[in-house]
Amino acid sequence: MTLARAALSILIAAAFGAVAPQAHAADQTQPGAGNAQADRTAAASPRVREAHEFLLRQARAIKNRALREATLELLGGRGFCVRSRVGVDDGTKAALLARLTAAGLVNPADDASFPGGLSAGVFPPLLAADTACPRLPMAFDSAPGSAFGSHHGYPGGLPIHEANNLRAGLGLADGYRKSYRGVEAGEEHGHDDEDPSWQRSAFFIDQDIVIAAPIWHDWAKTLVFQWAADGSEFRELSFGGTPANGTATGGHHIISIAESMKRALPPAFVIAQASAHSNPTLGNEFKVVAWLRAAAVLAQLDPVVAGYLVQDAQGGFHLPPLRKLAEGVDLVGAGQTNLLAEYTIHNLSDGDFTFSIPAAGDAALLIARLAPSYGFDPASVATYNTLYRNPVFANISQERILVLYGNGGLAAVQAELDALHARHGF
User: Which residues constitute the signal peptide according to the record (predicted)?
Assistant: First the structure.
């Protein structure tokens, strides 16, 4: 292979996250060895801090006290107690995995191929796991927004991703209200739990759900995408289905829903949260139902009794008719679904991946091309990731890099890197 082709191969590998092959796969039964380094990288980023402060401001505006307090606890750091894991010892894990397997909600073949087996994928390692308060293995702000080669795959990517999604959700909800509420009446769109007069308006989109769903949807990425010593990430297990039924999705989604259920958060909120990966409309409801069922197994509760699902006469599961959805017409009996606007708003707000995933690949190519200017070699994996790639993305973002490149070429990207280098000296 020529030197030119070798260099090109490194750049292509960087684009798809393959620049960080680990000599020895990370032990995914133990907290990530690179979590502390990720904490430091995220803490040094003004962009991460801005995203976190935005999430906090929005969370403080949640009216429902239980949901507000839980959300602020989640954003507060490692003190967050993962209640769905309290008392979940090895025997309990085995029993829950057996239930998931019997229900077709996990693929048994993954036990042999996933690092640490199914147990490590469904029950990622925590701190103080055997106590009454199992805690996050890294700060919320240190987590990535996705896999290493995908969108927001860097320390601090999680709050940046969530802040962008929340801004999108707020805009969507505002658009729904302006487009569809009473033209003359000017119906209210907020509410106060202490004053039930909000229920007098039939046109109601719950702002609490609009705010909280994007924050809660991805929090479990702090568990499934822990950091390896070389600055790459743990692998994530997909479950909630099998190849046969086609409902498997990223494990963070199921684990996040389970925690909301364990905390007895409201059904409309939990279903909206579960709708992030698929809008529960006709033809897709079965996916959201499967994820709610899988989460209920992890939360060790009956989803029908808890109000998250209903069953029809044949034993099939459906979304429940919340609020007034059962008054007048049986939508499920008529072949439709019990749909609230908040479910769709949250689903749409999670759609930035159409830009952010390709931006991740393009940005990886661009910064790899410029790396020698700053003394970094993509082939030196741990140094490259921890001291160059991850800090660059945490401070600038993959999306900003692509927008700069599209309008100003490589020179604009280098100018941004030069400014960051001058401030931080990476």
Answer: 1-25
Query: Which residue type occupies 219?
Result: W
Which of 352, 290, 350 lies closest to 106, judged by CA? 290
Q: What is the mean pLDDT of the chain?
A: 91
Residue with tokens 């839980």: 70
Round to whole Å and give the CA distance between 33 and 31: 6
294: exposed, middle or buried (Cβ count in 10 Å: 0-12, 13-18, 19+): buried
Could you tell me how many residues make up the chain? 426
CB-CB contact of 308 with 320 (8 Å): yes
pLDDT at site 129: 96
Q: Find the largest Cα–Cα distance for the chain.
A: 73
Return the structure tokens found at 194: 């202490």
Instruction: Give the residue carrying structure tokens 């080669």.
Output: 149
- Give CA 387 to chain center in angstroms: 25
Residues 6 or more apart whose CB falls under 8 angstroms from that of 242 comprise: 104, 105, 106, 107, 248
Give the H or E element holding residue 238. strand 238-239
